[in-house]
Design goal:
The complex is a heterotrimer of chains A (347), B (371) and C (510).
Chain A: H1 2-28, H2 33-45, H3 48-73, H4 81-98, H5 103-132, H6 136-159, H7 178-183, H8 192-209, H9 211-221, H10 223-228, H11 233-259, H12 272-282, H13 287-304, H14 306-311, H15 315-346
Chain B: H1 2-43, E1 53-56, H2 67-81, E2 90-93, H3 101-110, E3 115-119, H4 124-133, E4 138-142, E5 151-156, H5 158-172, E6 177-182, H6 187-203, E7 208-213, H7 220-232, E8 237-241, H8 246-259, E9 266-271, E10 279-280, E11 283-284, E12 286-292, H9 294-306, E13 315-318, E14 325-327, H10 337-351, H11 361-370
Parallel strand pairs in B: 1-2, 1-3, 3-4, 4-5, 5-13, 6-7, 6-8, 8-9, 9-12
Antiparallel strand pairs in B: 10-11, 12-14
Chain C: E1 3-14, E2 17-28, E3 32-36, H1 43-50, E4 58-63, E5 66-68, H2 73-78, E6 81-84, H3 96-101, H4 115-128, H5 144-157, E7 162-166, H6 174-189, E8 193-198, H7 201-207, E9 210-215, E10 218-224, H8 230-238, E11 256-266, E12 272-282, E13 286-290, H9 297-304, E14 310-317, E15 320-321, H10 327-334, E16 335-338, H11 342-346, H12 353-357, E17 368-369, E18 372-373, H13 375-388, H14 405-418, E19 423-427, H15 435-450, E20 454-459, H16 462-468, E21 471-476, E22 479-484, H17 491-498
Parallel strand pairs in C: 3-8, 3-9, 6-7, 7-8, 13-20, 13-21, 16-19, 19-20
Antiparallel strand pairs in C: 1-2, 1-4, 4-5, 9-10, 11-12, 11-14, 14-15, 17-18, 21-22
Helix pairs in contact in C: 14-15
The chains are: A mainly alpha (347), B alpha/beta (371), C alpha/beta (510).
Family (chain B): Belongs to the BMP lipoprotein family.
GO cellular component, one term (chain B): plasma membrane
Domain ABC transporter substrate-binding protein PnrA-like (chain B): 52-359
């Protein structure tokens, strides 16, 4: 019981500490922290529009967080979520554009296409690690760049004729909901958050309830013992990255079928994949934790937009404050980890 | 394990309830704001003090030393002229990624700004959506076309200015090799590239133009790398149309100059007079800049709005004629009399219609064939 | 008599456990004092209290007669107490000298590290105590034994008068153990005092002056080593009579279970390490493979279990060819494997004991149905096994990492034996365990034999081979060079055979 209380108290205290540190910085630079945080709150939950936008922003972060957490749980570091997001986005939009079908076929097809594209993008580093022992971090980073630049070129040459944005997908492939938008004052909220929540449940189920997850975790913890016990270590490496990649691909689907309904040439990474690393770490690689961490992260990011306009806090300062809050939450885990480790040694 | 399941279910339920509750509250709120705004726009035309203007940057940020900054300078100048206060009558919102555009635009709508400017073609889709959703607010998009009765499109004839800096580059080059660094391939940057190449070739068709794209408007490291390769390959003048990426081009030029002050290499700036970026010791590597007076255009649109003549649905095109495209001659040492007179000669040809600067790769092709 | 260090009535509690309950240890100047106890008895906790890593709830520590409070290891260092840890704390790419001065770098008057001076001091220390350490060697290039000496030098360099050795022989070869004992004697001759944490009776009898016994956190007493023997020490430690000679009836071997013909196996550098090996293990017998480490034993076992490719030759189980089958197929064909390295190969330390129990069977009914795990069945099975095999763990949900070595090994043996394999392979099954656990494991191996299973035992300890095996196969240079029964041979002969010398007996290979 005490451990459960501990699990809740540590992150809460960390968030409070982060907020206090941010307040001190605002005070030192001559801004009013109360109006600053009021702006942050209003920016995230001030009215139904911002709530809708906050949910929209949380949705893909949950999925990239799950993607990275899944790989982490099996001992792999998938830095390639970024690239998997981009190819997932492209694949979903392509299906949305070029296939004509009723919604009950079209939408699932587009979603699956995005997940598969992400999976394929993660399969490459997986197979390279399994067969040749190439470290997945290096390959996934490279795959990010390949995804970014190839997708940009495909948008310009295949999807359009030299334009920077594709056409809008057919409504039968769209996750957007007029009803949701109407109750949130035209925010871009879409049904994707249900997919994200479902993905979290799915990850929990695979990791904690199935023999597949048992094997994946085992290989992550100790590949040698797993091999001795008769598991196919290489197959599990590939499988883990493929599942991770399909989660990341789904994050791209959220953007392609939900938020934007199209795909544009990107001037740089979406950062969804990289933020997903922080989300996974904050969430301690646990599905419920990832969901909560994505909510925290998305809220901070969305609310921060309001701080410069209504509280006069410069954007750069806002970034520092967000970073501090995350730092404190992360060090909360470090503290807890340290305490647990200490306890373990005592035994 | 059971408790985890329960938590999740509770969470989903909670979220659903929460959303439903918000949904109920919103419709009233939305209606209120809409009616309020209607009153305002109709009653208060003609008085700058009651007019609120805001701009949303693209991810270059407000201090990009390029068109975001220039737009903001235009708004600031308008504000100061009328003795207005930042944060009350005029403001900006900075976007760090694509996902920020929409909330930023909407925020200003909800804060009841009369005119909201989106800076950069990146904002095209989001501004279009916003304009359709909020027909009572006026919008303007810089650098691309929107189609809505309450939105104005502000575009520039960058190909004209690019043509003229091309002329200057052709006159200045010693190696007969010049370079062009673009941010991202797009119809907008095509105007810069086509105009520039046409200008260079009009003076001397034998000059080689090395065209490279950085695939980013915010990656100075990439800009520096491309510039380093170009200068190593004998290019002596680089024209950049790449926003923040161009800072890397300047850095590389200055590095080369520092190591070898005798070497004659230059950068041509874009959007603003980038003379200050080129200073290194007693030298300056900025030959000239293709100045795009976004501030002039922005102020023009604001004033029309204040006077109740907002050009909603119109496509405004600003060029040499409107004094919105000019060529900087701050670097007097580098921009010799010869060059200036040649530039003026071609400028006159463009103004009287004798020469039409090409704005797309296709037009460029036709133009080059006609030389 | 004056004591250099006294720990009086020390009590240390952890949530739910009393690790040390009223323990008193008094160390005389110039003596080697053993701290004897089973794994998990509380020896390491007690020494961590002395070294300042833990604070005791009760009791007093005196150094040279004065009461002191040791709040952290730096205080311990200042008081002249140094610790040689079981797991070395060395920086591999650094030289010996760099490692020793780390954290206490000597500087010249300009504040620059004076490595030459340090090197000279270290050389002197090394010569004085006969450590024979090369101050310029890189840690990654020297043997484990040498690394341990570097740890000893580290404490001496920091001015330690009292040295604590935490199970120092666990990682050493027999030769290195002898040398270490010599070093410890020369240290005490120079006036140093030593506390030796161990559970090996032989070491205590050979080198120590006195011995304090701890059992389940309680101090049992201190005895003069000269006035005791192994039996007394063992029963003090375990709390009951311990038999050193394993009791067993004569084997009644039946049909052949494992047959290996002309086997060639390469190591990871593509060199043949098993070179044309023949071996036969029958149902109802224990075959012990004796040999010096590195003569192909590891490769042989990995080849049988499918973990390493067989280059040439055949492995037959119950007359079926299992050559180059996958580990899972080999397991399913009826092979159990107790691996040499239980942390690396035997267990997933971050899994609970329950999860480790099904490491090979998780995918089968009843533990798993349509890929969905049935944790109820898994933990029920685990409950049953930990009772049967006397695995001492707070619960089946405890992580394997938290268990002592002996209990981890019992869990592995429980898991492997419970599957009732026709062939049970045990590699160094008692390494690092205390006498109680060793006795238990040997009994289990013999029980399996008596049930008519074939057992293949690989051990580098001749005692174990002689005690447990029904037949001894001596392995040298990738081949079985001789086969003996324990009755017809002795340790001298086996030692010679293991070193590659020939003795007279028909049927021996080259």
């Amino acid at each position: 019981m005490s451990n459960k209380v501990f699990n809740i108290i540590v992150p809460v205290i960390s968030v409070i500490l982060g907020l206090i540190a941010g307040a001190i910085i605002m005070l030192l630079s001559g801004h009013n922290p109360i109006s600053g945080y009021a702006a942050l709150w209003n920016g995230a939950f001030g009215d139904s529009y911002t709530i809708g936008e906050t949910v929209r922003r949380i949705t893909p972060l949950m999925l990239t967080g799950l993607a990275i957490a899944f790989a982490f749980r099996t001992g792999l570091f998938n830095i390639g979520a970024e690239g998997q997001v981009i190819v997932g986005w492209l694949a979903a939009v392509c299906v949305g554009l070029y296939i004509d079908a009723p919604m009950y076929i079209h939408l699932p097809l587009a979603i699956i296409a995005g997940a598969l594209a992400g999976a394929l993008w993660a399969f490459v580093p997986g197979i390279l690690k399994a067969k040749l022992g190439v470290h997945e971090v290096i390959v996934t980073i490279m795959m990010n760049y390949i995804a970014l630049y190839s997708v940009n070129e495909i948008i310009r040459t295949v999807l359009t004729d030299g334009e920077t944005t594709s056409a809008t997908i057919a409504p039968t492939a769209s996750l957007a909901s007029e009803w949701l938008q109407s109750i949130t004052f035209y925010s871009r909220i879409h049904y994707g958050f249900l997919i994200a929540l479902f993905a979290a449940v799915l990850m929990w189920f695979i990791i904690d309830r199935t023999s597949i997850g048992y094997e994946l975790k085992s290989v992550g913890f100790n590949p040698h013992a797993s091999k001795y016990a008769g598991m196919n270590v290489n197959r599990n490496i590939v499988l883990s990255l493929v599942i991770s990649g399909s989660f990341a691909g789904l994050a791209g689907v959220m953007e392609g079928l939900g938020t934007y309904g199209n795909i544009s040439v990107m001037g740089g990474f979406t950062n969804l994949g990289f933020d997903g690393i922080a989300v996974a770490l904050l969430g301690a690689n646990n599905p419920l934790g990832v969901v909560l961490a994505a909510i925290l992260f998305g809220t901070l990011k969305e609310g921060a937009g309001e701080m410069p306009t209504s509280a006069g806090v410069p954007t750069e300062l806002v970034d520092i404050i967000i970073a501090l809050i995350i730092l404190f939450v992360a060090s909360g885990y470090i503290i807890r980890w340290a305490i647990l480790r200490f306890k373990k040694e005592e035994k | 394990m059971k408790s985890k399941k329960l938590l999740l279910v509770a969470f989903i339920l909670g979220l659903g309830l929460f959303l439903a509750a918000c949904g109920g509250a919103t419709e009233e709120e939305g209606n209120e704001t809409n009616t309020e705004k209607n009153d305002e726009t109709t009653s208060e035309a003609g008085n700058a003090a009651d007019y609120k203007v805001a701009m949303v940057t693209d991810y270059g940020g407000v201090d990009d030393k390029s068109f975001n900054q220039s737009s903001w300078e235009g708004i600031q100048a308008w504000g100061e002229e009328n003795g207005l206060e930042k944060g009350v009558n005029y403001d900006y919102a900075q976007s760090t990624e694509k996902a920020d555009y929409m909330p930023n635009l909407t925020r200003f709508v909800r804060d009841e700004y009369n005119l909201i400017l989106g800076i950069g073609f990146e904002l095209k889709e989001d501004l279009q959506t916003a304009a359709e959703q909020y027909p009572d607010t006026n919008f303007a998009l810089v650098d691309d076309i929107v189609d809505a009765p309450n939105a104005a499109s502000i575009t520039f004839r960058e190909e004209q200015g690019s043509f003229l800096v091309g002329v200057a580059a052709a006159m200045k080059t010693n190696t007969n090799k010049v370079g062009f660094v673009g941010g991202m391939r797009s119809p907008l940057i095509d105007k810069f590239e086509s105009g520039f190449v046409a200008g260079v070739k009009s003076v001397n068709p034998d000059i080689e133009v090395d065209v490279q794209y950085a695939e980013s408007f915010a990656d100075p490291a990439k800009g520096k790398l491309i510039a380093a390769n170009m200068y190593d390959n004998g290019v002596d003048i680089i024209y950049h149309a790449s926003g923040g990426t161009g800072n890397g081009v300047f850095n590389q030029a200055k590095d080369v100059k520092q190591n070898d002050p005798e070497r004659e290499i230059f950068v041509i700036g874009v959007d603003r007079d980038q003379y200050d970026e080129g200073a290194i010791g007693n030298h300056n590597v900025t030959l000239t800049s293709m100045v795009k007076r976004v501030d002039v255009a922005v102020q023009d649109v604001i004033n029309r709005g204040v006077n109740g003549e907002f050009p909603g649905g119109e496509q405004l095109v600003y060029g040499i004629e409107e004094d919105a495209i000019t060529i900087a001659s701050t670097n007097e040492e580098a921009m010799t009399e010869d060059i200036i007179s040649a530039v003026e000669e071609w400028e006159a040809k463009i103004l009287n219609g004798e020469v039409e600067a090409p704005a797309t790769p296709d037009e460029l092709e036709t133009f080059l064939e006609s030389l | 008599m004056e004591y250099v260090v006294e720990m009086l009535n020390i009590r240390k509690e952890f949530p739910g456990i009393v690790a040390n309950d009223n323990i008193t240890v008094q160390l005389k100047k110039g003596e080697i004092h053993a701290l004897l106890g089973e794994n998990g008895a509380g020896k390491s906790t007690l020494m961590n209290v002395l070294f300042g890593l833990y604070q005791p709830e009760k009791g007093e520590i005196r150094v040279n007669g004065k009461a002191v409070k040791i709040t952290d290891p730096n205080v311990a260092n200042d008081l002249g107490i140094g610790m040689v840890h079981q797991h070395f704390m060395l920086v591999e790419p650094f030289t010996v000298t760099q490692n020793i001065v780390l954290g206490k770098e000597p500087t010249n008057k300009f504040g620059k590290i004076d490595i030459a001076r340090a090197r000279k001091e270290i050389q002197e220390l090394s010569d004085r105590y006969g450590l024979k350490v090369d101050p310029d060697a890189k840690i990654s290039d020297i043997s484990v034994g040498m690394q341990q000496r570097v740890e000893i030098l580290k404490t001496l360099y920091r001015g330690a008068d009292v040295l604590i050795f935490d199970e120092p022989t666990a990682v050493l070869t027999p030769q290195e153990i002898t040398e270490l004992m010599e070093i410890m004697r020369s240290l005490t001759k120079e006036g140093k005092s030593i506390i030796l944490i161990t559970h090996k009776l032989k070491e205590i009898l050979e080198t120590c002056h006195r011995c304090t016994v701890i059992r389940k956190g309680k101090g049992i007493g201190t005895v003069d080593v000269a006035e005791t023997d192994a039996n007394e020490l063992a029963s003090l430690m375990v709390g009951r009579e311990v038999s050193f000679k394993t009791e067993k009836t004569k084997a009644t071997p039946k049909q052949s279970i494992l047959e290996i013909n002309n086997l060639y196996v390469r190591d990871s550098r593509k060199v043949d390490l098993v070179k044309g090996l023949d071996l036969n293990v029958r149902a109802g017998e224990i075959v012990g493979i004796a040999g010096v480490d590195g003569n192909g034993q590891t490769e042989l076992i990995e080849a049988i279990t499918g973990l390493r490719k067989v280059r040439e030759g055949k492995v037959m189980l119950n007359s079926k060819d299992i050559t180059n089958h996958s580990p899972r197929k080999v397991t399913e064909a009826g092979v159990g494997h107790i691996p040499q390295d239980r942390h690396k190969h035997g267990l997933v330390l971050d899994y609970s004991i329950g999860e480790n129990i099904v490491l090979q069977t998780y995918y089968k009914k009843p533990y798993s149905k349509a890929k969905v795990l049935n944790y109820k069945e898994i933990f029920q099975k685990a409950e049953k096994l930990i009772k049967e095999y006397d695995v001492r763990t707070p619960s089946v949900h405890t992580k394997a990492r938290a268990l002592s070595g002996g209990n981890q090994q019992k869990a592995i043996i429980g898991r492997e034996v419970d599957r009732s394999p026709d062939l049970l392979i045990a590699v160094q099954p008692t390494r690092g365990l205390d006498v109680g656990a060793i006795e238990f494991i040997h009994k289990k191996l013999i029980e399996e034999r008596d049930k008519g299973k074939a057992v293949l035992l690989v051990s580098f300890e001749l005692d174990e081979i002689m005690n447990v095996s029904d037949r001894i196969a001596v392995m040298f240079d990738g081949k079985i060079v001789a086969s003996r029964t324990p009755e017809e041979t002795n340790e001298q002969e086996l030692g010679l055979l293991m070193a590659g010398s020939k003795t007279e007996k028909a049927g021996d290979k080259e």
